[in-house]
Fold these 3 entries.
Entry 1:
Amino acid sequence: MATEEIKNAAAGSGAPTGAQATPYGGFVYMPLIAGWLVPGAGHFLLGKWVRGSLLAASVLGMFATGLAMHGEIGSEIHNILDILGLAGGLGSGLLYMVARVAGWGAAQAQTTVADWGTRFIWVAGLLNVIAAVDAHNLRTGRKS
Amino acid sequence: MTYFPAVLLFALFASTVFGITQRETPVRMFRYGLYCFSLFVGSAIVLSWLMWLIAR
């Protein structure tokens, strides 16, 4: 009975197979995009205030710690690892773009601690992507 | 900042995100977050001792 209802709801909404009916309306990818641009915003859109706040605090904390350690932002791309680093940084969305435009962080890591700071900034972006995908899964009903 | 506080901060932030995103109920989120945190910190301590032994 319950399985049939879920199947009907998924078929009617055009949602992916295995998705459940959700109470959320609007553009299905909005939580994903909002969550990528602003840490925690995807969960805020869905009314998950506590989860969103904790995720935002974690991503912002990781990013701010990286900046405080004089991690690199906006370094030039010399090899494939630099491209991966840029992709990781871009995962922070507007945070990374603002930091790059404003000239926060170091142009080049000069110390061991600054090198750790660069990794903190990369990982903040990767964690933000995980959080944004989680918001998308909540929106589509893959997760409750 | 020294190495150990950096490890603790990294583990705290990463475990929080892992806990919230990989589990569904608050209790399971907390438990999984704690599990990830202990693995992060524990593995850092074990690897540090291993490197110290290798370097001797």
Entry 2:
Amino acid sequence: MELIILLVIIAALAFWVVAIYNKLVALKNRYENGFAQIEVQLKRRYDLIPNLVETAKAYMSHERETLEAVINARNQAMAGLQAAAADPGNAAAMKELGSAEGMLGSALGRLNVVMEAYPDLKANQNMMQLSEELTTTENKVAFSRQAYNDQVTEYNSYRQSFPPVVFAGMFGHGTDAELLEFADSAAIQAAPSVSFN
Amino acid sequence: MNFFQAQDNARRKTWMLALLFGAAVITLLLLTNVFIAIAFGWAGMQTGMTFSQTLAQVPVDSWIWISLGVIGVIGVASLYKFLSISGGGKTIAEALGGTLIHQNTQDMKQRRLLNVVEEMALAAGMPVPPVYLIPEPSINAFAAGFSTDDAVIGINQGTLDQLSRSELQGVVAHEFSHILNGDTHINLRLIAILHGILFVGMIGYGLLRAGGYSRRNGLPIVVAGIGLLIIGYGGTFFGNLIKAAVSRQREYLADASAVQFTRDPSSIADALKKIGGFSMSSHMTNPAAEQASHMFFGAAAQKFSTSLLATHPPLDQRILAIEPGWDGQFLQNSPAAMTADQRSHAERSNRAETAGVTQLADGPENKAQGIVDQVGTLSAAGLTAAQNMISNNPEQLTQAAHDPFEARALIYAMLINKEQDHSSEQQLALLGEQAEAGVAPHVTRLLPAVRNSSSEHLLMLVEMSVPALKELSFSQYKTFTANTAALITADKRVEIFEWVIHRVLTKHLHAHFEGPQNIHGRVGNINKLADDAAKLLSILASHSHEDTNEQLRAYNAGAAELGIRKPYSKQDSFDYQRMNDTLVKLRKLKPLAKPALLKACATCVLADSRVNAAEGALLQGIAATLDCPLPPSIYS
């Protein structure tokens, strides 16, 4: 009877839809895990900065503003990270974290420029080790950010493709996840180019 | 029962499951037809005809169509589930809402768990499985995966909070024995198979509710719904029967293996006692847990635990099986006990008991048998060997193995030419171009420690790096494999060690990124593959000694072990293509045919009573390709 065939076809379609839902959930899960890795690396970075500032303070007692700017930017970034970790992929949170990280990058960059005037500080063992670690952490942040962005792209592409796009909205996957962008700062290592214009 | 026997049994069980499943389907068909007949008859009686009159009017092929329909739906449901688990063990962890625990986590409890899992995986000679944290407060755990390559461990938050390190070790050992015994393979298949027969009940429930809301003609729908519901519970009955038949006995076995491994029955007994004494016990709240109920350490739902349909033996029976003198008291987790334990958090070594390690008799024959016997087993000696290797490892390398970024640099470093020469310069330059920012300098930093480590150590580091590497995104993984291939072929030669690393890595990572491959061993008799076995032994023998006569002796020892009469063909250099082709064929061996091959390889290698680096590495590569986890203790 045609009714039976119809029933089987409907069952197949129903499962197909469930499979779409499951894949959306799995891909989301994956980029959330990816974000958690960024979190590990960023936390490491934020932990290194107070040490850096303390070491620098001993040599750069008159550069209080620059140093404070770094600490403030770092605290701001930490807050941004906490907000983002609560909802990875959320557009507002990602943009917030991106800009906070960008500001931290600039602050560190300025610190780097200022440090040029203190060769003793640059030669300090502790400082060198911290800079080294910071650079490594920067690389790791960049790498984990790349992984996260790859995974977000996979989720978004799937979500926008046909047929998932038809069901995504009603399954609670109505919006694209946001990529995490900020200028990867090799701030401490790169010698800044000074223009005399 | 040894590893190979267990693997073989695991495959046989599949036939029994198929039979039971067939019985379930037939029952479902019968019940469906009966209920629809009743429904028709009842409808007919409303219009004044008798029951049998109505039924006579129904065309015969209707029953056939209905039956086909039921089979069709069951088939579709099972197919759907098969597809959804095709990603391997991690799909289960994700379905249960698990979050991946990162290898470089700073959380103390998680670190401790990861250390326990890592030690155990290395002790068994398998890649370290990723660990997922399940957000449930009860004490439970599971292992899932088709093989060691896609295996994952899942641990409840409650387990982390409530158990001490040694109790945790007991639970993890229990789960590992499931992986090594092939239980996880069957259990995963079971989820897909059972989904087909459980699904019918779900439709019934849906129809029941739909019919209840409709005004006109609601009753037939409700009846149909109730009918399907009852039929469905017929399927559920068989489903649980199947689960129970498969898993319940295995639980005792896994408990026993865990005791044997940790040499400390109190650890797993205490874990069980804590489950008994804990308010939430081992119960899972996530509805998805029901489907996987047979995969957990403790019973996931409060079913009548003494019934035939229980997936786990009753808690008290399990405790008594381990601790015959148990006084019946469960354990309440006390804050004092926990703080005392916290003080030793994240510690690596346990009081590893070295007593009772059997001394192998000296003859190469017995030693070879000893090696084969160790495959796929967990032993206290293996754990000690693993712990020693881990603690002897430079901190720098251990840390590298646990970080996704650094782990790649570590592998690249292993593939850089040992001597500082034109070749190594070339390779580093290649990395500078093709790898991500910061990789090449990191490789340079790791090189001294890597060059200082034995190949055995490096292979252990490869197994340690696997979970961190599994965190790469797909395109990062592609770049990584392209780079490793480029590094290997940069000097136009493929060395044995390079081959082994590539082989082992590809196998472990492929399962995660591109789906597990299920090789179904079909060849039961090694003589059918005598040519390939001879090739394999020839390669091994060629590297066992400088002297051709010694090589011949080694080859003959191995060939005699296997009973094959092919001649030795000396290999002047390592031909990796030949090796790969040979192994592809030999992978088709059935589990019970593998020990003989491995023993022959071991005999060949041990013929001169020395295992040099090349032989050791080759043996590891061969064992890994044949899915035979080789514990490190064979080298002690």
Entry 3:
Amino acid sequence: MSQVNLLPPELRERQAIRRTTSLVAAVGLAVLALIGIFYVFQVQRLSQAQSDLEAQQSRNARLESQIASLQEFADLQAELASKEALVGEIFVNEVSWSSALLDVSRVIPDASYLTNLTGQITPTVAGEVATEPTGGTPESTLIGNMTFAGVANQTETIATWITRLEEVQGWVNAWVNSAQEDAPFSRIYTFSNGLDLTKEAATVRGQVAP
Amino acid sequence: MNRRAPIIAGVIAALVAFLAVFLLVLPKMGEVSTTNDELQAAEDREFTLAAQLNALQDAQAAAPETEQEIAAIDAAIPPVADLPSLFRLLQGAADRSAVDFFSFTPGTPVPNAGGTYSSIASQVTVSGGYFAIDQFLFLLETLPRAAKVTTLAVTPSGATTGETTTTTSTSNLQLQVTVEFYTTDLSAGPGSIPGPSEITGTGA
């Protein structure tokens, strides 16, 4: 059975427009409602974030206050560091001459004796780099030297002496400056020689860079 | 009713939504983002501060040792030249190593280039046996006062440095050393301003 709408077409059209308008308005209101909900959500997030920030800033302020109360210990540490740097600068390239004399007594051959022994370390100025042989390493940096004068029976004794000198850690470039026989065929030689000291010959505190 | 009514309603709704988003939602989102950034920065700072606090608490725990180390360094490099104590230390070292303390010539204190300390280059001469002077050198190296031997010469007693002697047998040797002592007083020695330099911050 078919239905017959007896309303005039203008009325039907008006109803359709009203429905469409209502629908559009409803959708608009729904979108606005969603925007409102999202806005409220953002407000809550902001409130939470501000609350967290205030709490965090309060914790930080407490820590800063604790740090300020302990500042004297930081100053103490800084004072120690500065004094240690001073000690490092003072003792740079220090050689233990007592150890050096012991080493001499260990390596000197029986058939010889010394009449003179000298040693010196190269004066260093802050920031100045000590002599380093061409192609050398920091360990081979020369920091001083030693010289010897003595008397030896046979040239072989002198050869043994300079060989043994090179066996001591940090003693390098052992060199004989002169070896002269005291009298013809006496085989007793007066000699003078020297060597260079490298960074390895320095004491532990003397090896620390300032 | 106007046929354009739905279109007008849609435009109005879109306009209101657009204004709501741009005037309310987006600024609020920006505020949230800024606050979160500030919060993150504050949290990062807390880590830094906590690490700093831990370091300071460690420094506080180590303060007695630190003070002892500073006192030891102050004794090694005193704020004044303090020659009397130097004399006593050298005489004590000579006595303990059984050498004869022959001469002591302290040089005029010279400030270093950095202006942090003065060095007193001194000549010390002692005489004794080989191992006695070795012991004296060891005691010199381990004095409570910082000392660095820069040159030394060991000769048979009676000979002067650089002079070759023909002595063949002697147990008595002479040791001449140049030894540097130090003070943080930058104006020390004859003609200087009495007392420690003010930059040391410590009293004599």
